[in-house]
Amino acid sequence: MKKFYITTPIYYPSDKLHIGHSYTTVAADAMARFKRMTGYDVMFLTGTDEHGQKIEKKAKENNVTPKEYVDHIVAGIKDLWKLMDISYDDFIRTTDNRHQAIVQKIFTKLYEQGDIYKSEYEGWYCTPCESFWTEHQLEEGNCPDCSRPVELVKEESYFLRLSKYQDRLIEYIKEHPDFIQPKSRQNEMINNFLKPGLEDLCVSRTSFKWGIPVTFDDKHVIYVWIDALSNYISALGYMTDNTEKYEKYWPADVHLVGKEIVRFHTIIWPIMLMALGEPLPKKVFGHGWLIMEGGKMSKSKGNVVDPVVLVNRYGLDALRYFLLREVPFGSDGVFSNESLINRINSDLANDLGNLLSRTVAMIEKYFDGEIPACGELVDLDKELQTLALETPKKVEKLMDELLFSDALAEIWKLVSRCNKYIDETTPWVLAKSEAERPRLGTVMYHLAEGLRFLSVLIAPFMTRTPAQMQNQLGIVPGESTTWESLNEFGHLQAGTSVNRGEIIFPRLDLEKELDALEKLKNAEISKADGSAESKKSEAQDPKDGKIEILPEITIDDFAKIDLRVAKVVGAEKVKKADKLLKLTLDVGGKPRQVVSGIAQNYSPEEMVGKSVIIVANLKPVTLRGIQSEGMILAASNDDGKLVLVTVSEEIESGAQVQ
Ligand code: MSP
User: Which of 40, 94, 515, 593 has the most crowded Cβ, counting Cβ within 10 A?
Assistant: First the structure.
């Protein structure tokens, strides 16, 4: 089986990741999904880069240990990737033992073979970027990358002989034109860094402790970039007893990175690998930045956009689609709330969403909800079929060049073609004549099959919509939802029943949304500007002080829950269970028995006579041998406090709660 190894950078554990961070990961995820669908054995790696002076300082400010500080943030990052359906195969933390041991081995090997040597470093260091700079690289005395002040550091250090490998690297880049992509970044690396000459790199620090110690000289910790870059092979078991994964997946097919860290990935990393005698990654792709109107995305500038807020408001697929479609991957792109809403309205609500709802509605109306058989073809049908069959090939080619936006544009040509096909074939006119019934059937079949194609084509990019579309079209996931099934137009079985469902992308009111987003943004800024005290508590709260709302449900989902008012007529403790009370409830009919975990907050005596709310249609369960027929509602906080939900006025038992 063909293999494909793709990585994202490993993230600094920052308080909150913004949509700019999600950009690299969503792109890598789309690529990983695409490769899996097209028959590859994929290894998709992401993780966190947890060492360094910056983290040590932040942990101190928050009165926690560096490990405590990173642990809660990493948990938040994992939650975010879960929310965004990131299908990573492995998540590596640079604080993992499996990683630290390998970094130490790599460092020692390079030292023993003379590629790392001890000397003294005197120069400038930018802590936020964890980068060393020479005097002439500074811009107006500040870090050339982030414009923040730098510190003069002088310390005994170990150095990596970059200079020794410089010519070999230039040669390699010339011989492998695909190694650094897009091409403009290759020129930048050669002209700005390699041609002026590489200085040996300082690869250890003694002025702080939060790093991986050099095994043979433990007052030194290993420079974070040496530590971080090694993740790409430590995760595969390089230099361990089990190198199976390393042998299978290395060299990586692509490292996806933001443009500001291309130089670490195309200079330091290849030189480390050359020195280790290992092959270089096949490609490093440096994508552009998502910037805000008015500049770089940064919390301090008050323009952070929280992916959680956007996902909760517009749905995951709307955000994933926007990130991948709006900006060509190699270039910078401006993010604005307006561009997001407009994209959702035009491409998702108007084009794709409408196509699906119109098609399903017409199949219901004209064919009692059953997909009709395809009859004789006319040129218009053949044209649609040809485009549908050509689209996967075009997408494959564009994806191989990491041109996500162009691939989506190609798919949307098919969406537009299908919409135009409706206008051209005018099914509502055909429906008026019995003689045109076979023609109407052919038209409907083409639309439904076109939508099947679309539901499969978008699957690498959008994770929820394909199933929603397939469900409405009555398609069961399986043979008809594979990428391979796109080799044939006509997979859909006539006679399949469609199910009209919710509108997949409701149209948004631009003005209203902009207002709402402005308010949300202001709330975010005031939270970011909060006092040191509130920052401290934020750092210690694993959820970052944010309430995480579960995925949206429809009113139909809610209607399935039968909530009733119930009066407690009897209560007693459950033996050998500190937390449980056995309650007898009057819900209007025969009394019910419910076991509830409220014993630490309510005594049996105070329960009797209370009106509570019960989930009346919950499947009965047996707790401690006692049957429980429902669940009573209570609010809880993180400290385990429970407060019963009740009614504000007297109402009869059994009354419905809506
Ligand atoms: N820890 C290093 C990477 C080490 S890899 C061996 C790092 N981490 S980061 O958290 O700062 O950035 C992670 C990724 O997010 C980078 O690829 C970076 O370019 C990307 N982005 C951060 N802000 C971004 C935007 N505003 N827009 C697009 N990508 C951005 O660098």
Answer: 94
